[in-house]
Design goal:
CATH class: Alpha Beta
Strand order of the largest sheet: 3-2-1-4-5
Number of helices: 3
Number of strands: 5
Helix content: 25-40%
Order of helices and strands: EEEHEHEH
Low-confidence stretches: none
Structural class: alpha/beta
Number of domains: 1
CATH architecture: 2-Layer Sandwich
Mean pLDDT: 94
């Protein structure tokens, strides 16, 4: 099973490609405020390295948090869109061994259908000005 892993909870984003539990490639980059502009390019780059495309991906594993609101929102939105568009299973995990947990879930046939974030604390929303 070809699996794409996505972690976007901090300024340094991470993408990986696994064949079941074997890591084929893994890339990190300083995405910070350019995550929305770079995540698609980086995904294409790592797939191209292996002569693969999005259509070859058979499962998605995402880091669900806790972490940056915007980073998680962007990463999980991209993952959920890929899952929906290509009809592939998606799972999310949030511990140090998130990749191992997620890969095991996928191999066992789990599909969360939508990966939801865990931010770690309530949103800090200011009161509206009148």
């Amino acid at each position: 099973m070809l699996i794409l892993t996505i972690r976007t909870d901090k300024p340094e984003a991470e993408l990986g490609i696994y064949e079941d539990q074997k890591q084929l490639t893994y890339e990190t980059w300083q995405a910070h405020r350019e995550l929305a502009e770079t995540i698609h390019k980086k995904t294409a780059e790592i797939l191209n390295k292996l002569s693969k495309s999005q259509k070859d991906v058979q499962g998605l594993v995402c880091f669900k948090g806790p972490g940056s609101f915007t980073g998680l929102r962007i990463g999980l939105s991209v993952a959920n869109a890929l899952s929906y568009a290509h009809d592939i299973p998606i799972v999310a995990a949030g511990s140090e061994d998130w990749i191992e947990q997620g890969v095991k879930k996928l191999i066992s046939g789990k599909n969360e259908q939508i990966a939801l974030p865990t931010y770690g604390s309530p949103a800090h929303i200011t009161k509206a000005r009148k």
